[in-house]
Amino acid sequence: xxxxxxxxxxxxxxxxxxxxxxxxxxxxxxxxxxxxxxxxxxxxxxxxxxxxxxxxxxxxxxxxxxxxxxxxxxxxxxxxxxxxxxxxxxxxxxxxxxxxxxxxxxxxxxxxxxxxxxxxxxxxxxxxxxxxxxxxxxxxxxxxxxxxxxxxxxxxxxxxxxxxxxxxxxxxxxxxxxxxxxxxxxxxxxxxxxxxxxxxxxxxxxxxxxxxxxxxxxxxxxxxxxxxxxxxxxxxxxxxxxxxxxxxxxxxxxxxxxxxxxxxxxxxxxxxxxxxxxxxxxxxxxxxxxxxxxxxxxxxxxxxxxxxxxxxxxxxxxxxxxxxxxxxxxxxxxxxxxxxxxxxxxxxx
Length: 349
Description:
Residues 167-327 form the PurM-like C-terminal domain. One of its GO terms (cellular component) is cytosol. One of its GO terms (molecular function) is phosphoribosylamine-glycine ligase activity. By secondary structure, the chain is α+β, with helices and mostly antiparallel strands. It has helices at residues 11-22, 63-70, 76-88, 109-126, 185-195, 210-214, 222-231, 267-276, 280-286, 302-311, and strands at 44-48, 51-59, 94-104, 129-137, 145-156, 171-176, 236-239, 256-259, 291-297, 316-323, 326-328, 331-333, 337-341, 344-347. Strands 7-9-6-10-8-13-14 form a seven-stranded mixed β-sheet. A five-stranded mixed β-sheet has the order 1-2-5-3-4. Strands 11-12 form a two-stranded antiparallel sheet. The longest helix is centred in the middle third of the chain and has 18 residues, at 109-126. The radius of gyration is 20 Å and the shape is globular.
């Protein structure tokens, strides 16, 4: 069975690398501009009067390799923007501006035009301004094109959603993803191109080509989530990216997140699992599996969250609940994420 690690990505090693890097960052300003207490969350923030200024930074990742194979670059900028704005809204912040960074080996006017179109589509959907950026020609360092960006968002101090209020009894509402989004592409490419020997134009069993599936842009959840925050007491928000439902642990770490009512798994994930003989556990630890965002609310508010999401043409479902502890093989587990699927109980450590 193929794993994400076989494809060159070790998520546990990445965790250790991040901890090693963060352990050396000790300096903080001592004036009134103080960082918010959000270590380990989706976004960083600093105090600015009655507000927090929020920053997120991310890139397209190896999805750009597929864009180069297909010579189609007009969707990947949407992924870059989505990775940033979807993280920013996880603390209740409204994204307002973007600066981008493009590093290139060489680039044509056609590719630049496609990237420009994607940037415009992404900022329009996110309702933000592109206020600047940088392009660097680095032929000795870069193969092809790499695109990243940083988003600025704002939130009033008394309106921040930290996730600390999440408690047993709350429900987890899952918002549909558009597909693979921008995570797990190393494993997806290994399955489709190395194991199954397909190319980007190959048709999959459900009718779409590999390129159509892998280059479907990440869903941007800004508009529905900001509306939810205004209308409902939202207690926790999670962007489900690389590592899958493990991301829920960025919220309240003292509870259990039990995912046991998942909707139909999207065709792209079924196809990858079948072609690559990928274990259920590996799929759920790598991909979003059809749920791109989670909203945690009290039981009586779940239907309103679903109603708002559906109004924005994003199907939503109650997919689980918060518990004090969970039982797995007769053992009591605390402070973890449990996914029940295919008659299996899988701990997402």
